[in-house]
Amino acid sequence: MKPRVAVLISGGGSNMVKLLESMDGDHPAEPVLVLANSAGAGGLAKARALGVQSDFVDHKPYGKDREAFEDALIAKLDAVQADVICLAGFMRVLTSHFIDRYDGRMLNIHPSLLPKYKGLHTHARAIEAGDNEAGCTVHEVTAKLDDGPILAQARVPILETDSPETLAARVLIEEHRIYPQALRQFIHKL
């Protein structure tokens, strides 16, 4: 039986779409759920259009009770027997309560060359620092933010004319390329 992959999103889900499209007939895993933290996440409709079950747990009613929100996520993931969790633009910081449950089975795509620029505003920070290159990283998720073992990276030159938006657009092309590759390699090692 193929490992079952769930993808967590918060927005339009472009990385999620690339992951789902990559899980075709010869892929060693199968997508079973796209889960968002908002009913308005644009990626939910895209997942349904690709024939993948989609659902959401709105984080807002939980306020500061992150563990209760995570328990609701876990219930949805358990219902589909998810083996591997891929974070793809999921804009909620998860606690060790959630992360420990999926230890060694959760991946994330981050728009910087980790360990540089953990957290938000990575492209602006790279430009402001005068870096020559930026990029993206696929890593295993651990309890420390953007800190797990690195599985893949791609580099993009920073141009003199770059804004955070133009740099982000070029980095996103690389994200779409390396995340599906990294997932496939990760599944083979399970």
How would you describe this protein?
The chain is 35% helix and 22% strand. It is built from 6 helices and 7 strands; from the N terminus they run E-H-E-H-E-H-E-H-E-H-E-E-H. A 7-stranded mixed beta sheet has the order 3-2-1-4-5-6-7, with helices on both faces. Helix 2 (43-49) links the parallel strand 2 (30-36) and strand 3 (54-56). The longest helix has 26 residues, at 164-189. It starts with a strand and ends with a helix.
Poorly predicted parts: none
Count of individual domains = 1
CATH class: Alpha Beta
Percent in strands: 15-25%
Helix content: 25-40%
The N- to C-terminal Cα distance equals 13 Å
CATH H-level superfamily title: Formyl transferase, N-terminal domain
A few lines on this structure:
With 190 residues, this protein is of the alpha/beta class.
What labels describe this entry?
globular; Rossmann fold; 6 helices; 190 residues; alpha/beta; 7-stranded mixed β-sheet
How do the strands and helices of this protein lay out in sequence?
Elements: E1 4-9, H1 14-22, E2 30-36, H2 43-49, E3 54-56, H3 66-79, E4 84-87, H4 96-99, E5 106-110, H5 122-128, E6 133-140, E7 150-157, H6 164-189
Parallel strand pairs: 1-2, 1-4, 2-3, 4-5
Antiparallel strand pairs: 5-6, 6-7
Helix pairs in contact: 1-6, 5-6
